Amino acid sequence: MRGKKLDIKKGKNGQIDIWLFAIISTLLSIGVVMVYSASSYFSMFESNDSTVFFKKQAMWAVLGIIAMIITMRIDYHNYRNKRLMYGLYIVTAILLCAVFLFPATKGAQRWIKLPGGMSFQPSELAKYTVVLFLAYKLTKLGKNIKSLTKGVIPCLAYAGIIAGIILSQKNLSIASVTMMVSFAMIFIAGARFKDMFGKIAPLLVLAAVGFTFSSPYRYARLTNFVDPWKDPAGNGYQLIQSLYALGSGGITGLGLGQSRQKTMYMPEPHNDFIFSIIGEELGLIGCLVIITLFIAFIWRGIKIAMEAKDSYGSLIAVGITSIIGVQCLINIAVVTGSMPVTGVPLPFISYGGSSLVINLAAMGILLNISRQKQVKIER
């Protein structure tokens, strides 16, 4: 505004971003309902109880809400501690390696088995560990972030170690999410465009292509994505069933609980492909509502990052928002046949305890950042 001076004043803790809280609550509610709807037939067939997965998801939702309330009340500056950050990084790396002590599930070792038939997936924690650790390192670097050797490469190395261990679990999708979010944080922190996009980005793309073509099952997924009907009973089966579900839902859907593909056609429909069941039962309108909610989430996350009290809070907000945004984009792209099939859950909606509780705990951190924002004063 011409003729007026704007000062930036550090604001005291205020109200959380109520719009973000409402979006998270809505997505969580939709997720619990859709997990019940998508899993009821499969659950009845497996355990003679249609509510098994619903009850577990509801329990994890409650635990996640408690975790969110706790982290929402903790000043995010408390995480800016060298011993805490290095300790979290080391513990996360140990947990990621610990999965190899447990038997594989569906050919992959990604879970730590817990008593009572429960399990914990450390890679869900690892994504946010990298965000917090990089935010700490990047704010310490200052202008050194503009140096390729002193700033960019060391930060990418920290993220790459975690991503490499995740990749060894046959989890290219989450490893890719981790590196993409790290790339975004480093660039936003002030790394030079020519370094990030002229040198680093091509190397990361080449690495992703190399890992894809070096593994027979990843290569099979790539070729079946191009033409899933080439192997309709094998690698193309899940994507074909997803497309059938989305197509049969039409504009308004068949109605909540009325999916046909969940009746043992779609493998575990409450997991990564739950969006196709949403499309079948709630139609294009339901899908657009979900997409709109995630777009609104990203918008609020960006706004929080821009209004954060300091660069540390801004970087954490960028990282957390990017994780949710990238996972949402990948999941919906996979379900709609826009990219090769990969195992990325839809945040807040897909079934899974580790993912839900840790995501909600991260939302508490984001909400805490929203409480501490800059105040503009006109003079």
Automatic annotation (TrEMBL):
<feature type="transmembrane region" description="Helical">
    <location>
        <begin position="273"/>
        <end position="299"/>
    </location>
</feature>
<keyword id="KW-0328">Glycosyltransferase</keyword>
<comment type="function">
    <text>Peptidoglycan polymerase that is essential for cell division.</text>
</comment>
<feature type="transmembrane region" description="Helical">
    <location>
        <begin position="20"/>
        <end position="38"/>
    </location>
</feature>
<keyword id="KW-0808">Transferase</keyword>
<dbReference type="GO" id="GO:0032153">
    <property type="term" value="C:cell division site"/>
</dbReference>
<feature type="transmembrane region" description="Helical">
    <location>
        <begin position="58"/>
        <end position="74"/>
    </location>
</feature>
<dbReference type="Pfam" id="PF01098">
    <property type="entry name" value="FTSW_RODA_SPOVE"/>
</dbReference>
<dbReference type="GO" id="GO:0051301">
    <property type="term" value="P:cell division"/>
</dbReference>
<feature type="transmembrane region" description="Helical">
    <location>
        <begin position="173"/>
        <end position="193"/>
    </location>
</feature>
<feature type="transmembrane region" description="Helical">
    <location>
        <begin position="148"/>
        <end position="167"/>
    </location>
</feature>
<dbReference type="InterPro" id="IPR001182">
    <property type="entry name" value="FtsW/RodA"/>
</dbReference>
<feature type="transmembrane region" description="Helical">
    <location>
        <begin position="86"/>
        <end position="105"/>
    </location>
</feature>
<keyword id="KW-0133">Cell shape</keyword>
<comment type="pathway">
    <text>Cell wall biogenesis; peptidoglycan biosynthesis.</text>
</comment>
<dbReference type="GO" id="GO:0008360">
    <property type="term" value="P:regulation of cell shape"/>
</dbReference>
<protein>
    <recommendedName>
        <fullName>Probable peptidoglycan glycosyltransferase FtsW</fullName>
        <ecNumber>2.4.99.28</ecNumber>
    </recommendedName>
</protein>
<feature type="transmembrane region" description="Helical">
    <location>
        <begin position="200"/>
        <end position="219"/>
    </location>
</feature>
<keyword id="KW-0132">Cell division</keyword>
<keyword id="KW-0573">Peptidoglycan synthesis</keyword>
<comment type="similarity">
    <text>Belongs to the SEDS family. FtsW subfamily.</text>
</comment>
<feature type="transmembrane region" description="Helical">
    <location>
        <begin position="348"/>
        <end position="369"/>
    </location>
</feature>
<keyword id="KW-0961">Cell wall biogenesis/degradation</keyword>
<dbReference type="GO" id="GO:0008955">
    <property type="term" value="F:peptidoglycan glycosyltransferase activity"/>
</dbReference>
<dbReference type="InterPro" id="IPR013438">
    <property type="entry name" value="SpoVE"/>
</dbReference>
<keyword id="KW-1003">Cell membrane</keyword>
<dbReference type="GO" id="GO:0071555">
    <property type="term" value="P:cell wall organization"/>
</dbReference>
<feature type="transmembrane region" description="Helical">
    <location>
        <begin position="311"/>
        <end position="336"/>
    </location>
</feature>
<keyword id="KW-1133">Transmembrane helix</keyword>
<dbReference type="GO" id="GO:0005886">
    <property type="term" value="C:plasma membrane"/>
</dbReference>
<keyword id="KW-0812">Transmembrane</keyword>
<dbReference type="GO" id="GO:0009252">
    <property type="term" value="P:peptidoglycan biosynthetic process"/>
</dbReference>
<dbReference type="InterPro" id="IPR013437">
    <property type="entry name" value="FtsW"/>
</dbReference>
<dbReference type="GO" id="GO:0015648">
    <property type="term" value="F:lipid-linked peptidoglycan transporter activity"/>
</dbReference>
<keyword id="KW-0472">Membrane</keyword>
<keyword id="KW-0131">Cell cycle</keyword>
